[in-house]
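Today's session is about reading a structure prediction critically. Students often jump straight to the picture, but the first step is always the sequence itself: look for stretches that repeat, for charged clusters, for runs of hydrophobic residues. Only then move on to the predicted structure, which in these notes is written as discrete structure tokens rather than atom positions. Here is the chain we will use throughout the hour.
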Amino acid sequence: MSQESQAITWRAEFATGVAIIDDQHRVLIHMLNDASTKLNDRSPIADFSKIVQGLLSYAGYHFQTEDRLMAEYDYAGQCAAAASMHASQHKAFAEKVIAVQETLKAGQRVQKAVLVSFLTEWLADHILNTDKALGAYIGSQQAGGVSPGSTSSS
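Below is the predicted structure for this chain, in token form.
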């Protein structure tokens, strides 16, 4: 797949410093690029539904990973506002994608460009402005000798 046909390309600035998060982000980017390549505005609604369901399913898995890491490193206890915003963003994303699913289930089309644009812009913004903060927090905890399940306030 040529770089020009990709919806989003992994860039060094997306690295959070947390391997599992970065690996999962790469998978999400691959899935978005796959959707961008396979879909067009005349694609059957079933094709859109399958891709949207796959993205939602993997995003849910990814969000669970981040939630687990936030709990293990007491992100909510140490960075309450950031943790709350993070969770709110995940919820809003899931609600938006579920709304797209409902539109498709009702037999209504969605425009490929609108869908792919939303997904790629959301992912890039979330990585750069939210996940990187989580990664920096986890990195600082690890550098300070804090292991998962312990807190720095003990």
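Discussion point for the tutorial: The mean pLDDT is 91.
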